[in-house]
Amino acid sequence: MYILGNIFSDVFASFLNALGYLLAVFYSVIPSAGIAIILLTMLLRLIVYPLTAKQAKSMLSMQQAQPEIKKLQAKYKDDKQKLNEEMMAFYKENQINPFGGCLPLLLQMPIFISLYRLLNDIPKHLPQTGRFSAFYNEICIPAGVNTCNAKPKPIYKLPFFNNGTFDLHLSAGSGHDSIMAALPYWGLVALVVVTAFYQQKQTMRFQTQVNAQMQMVGKIMPLFFAFISINIPAGVVLYFFVSNLWQIGQQEVVYRKIGTPNGEPVGKKAKAAAIEAKSREATALPEIESGGKSPGGPGKTASGGSKQAPKASGQDPNRARKRKRKK
What we know:
Blueprint: H1 2-29, H2 33-47, H3 49-64, H4 66-75, H5 80-93, H6 103-120, H7 134-140, H8 179-204, H9 212-229, H10 234-257, H11 266-289, H12 317-326
Helix pairs in contact: 1-2, 1-6, 2-10, 4-5, 8-9, 8-10
């Protein structure tokens, strides 16, 4: 076990060094710690996209199958064994993995833990020499003295922008000099909560049968994120915020390209509705022009021929007939 522990520790440290190297690369392109963290987050989300897309599809399949699952539960409510057999057969027939939404979430946990560890001791994992050492030099040697080697604890700042006051190494719960100094940290926590709430609302948007437990989880999770975001480095909170925005965009793509819990993709539904509206409009046009009557309507005889309208002579036809009779 000791050897396995050392191997895991070495692999984890190498992963942290790789993340630090990527941050240094992004910083060399745009010299901003905040932008570097945003770019790193987007890269990591892009790498795990196949997993998160699979998770989204699996959750969507489960939501679409809920009406049929409820029917099976009602049918075999007194026979649990038969219910389990029918459920497994149903999943297999419809190619649904009931646990498909859990595994990708578990695989993303190491990323969160790694970023937390990285931003808690970032100088240790940045390249200190070579082409991409600018990031290390900026935070550790701002005035020619390497403060990251200070004992017993390294002294450094991780400003969002160079020479800025928004230190991503600190948290919202850290002791700040003033309300204005603490405002960006609490604002970032608020953005995480708002995007998390919107994400849950987006997930429930097309569900006709909403599970009460899922509703409760949807309300608790944003508050849970708020709670943990107060005491972790703002750089990790920034990762949460960007990840939420990415997830919102990805979910919208899934709804438009793959489908919604109700069935058809949003884009296809809108397109079908537009085609149907145009079809109704085209059908209604001849009826409006013909006065809305049957094919033998105004201007037509019973046999379908044209009926001649009286010529406009400026006289009343009835008065003309009376004069003729008098003569």
